[in-house]
Amino acid sequence: MTVTLRDIAERAGVTSATVSMVINNKPNISDATRKKVLKIAAELNYYPNAIARGLARRKANSIGVIVPNLASSFVVRILQGIKSTNRDIDYTVQLFDTIGQKVNEAQLFRRLARERRIDGVIVIGSAATDEQLRLFGQEDVPCVLVARHCDTISSVYVNNRKGARDATEYLIRKGHHSVACVVCHKPNLPAAERLAGYRDALEAGGVAFRDTLVLDVPDDDMAAGMKVFAKLRGNQRTGVTAVFVPAGDNVAIGIVKAAKKAGVRVPEDLAVVGYDDIPAAEVIEPTLTTVRQPKLEMGDYAINMIVDAVEGKETALKHKELQTKFIVRESA
Question: Contact at 8 Å (CB) between 210 and 269?
Answer without folding.
Answer: no
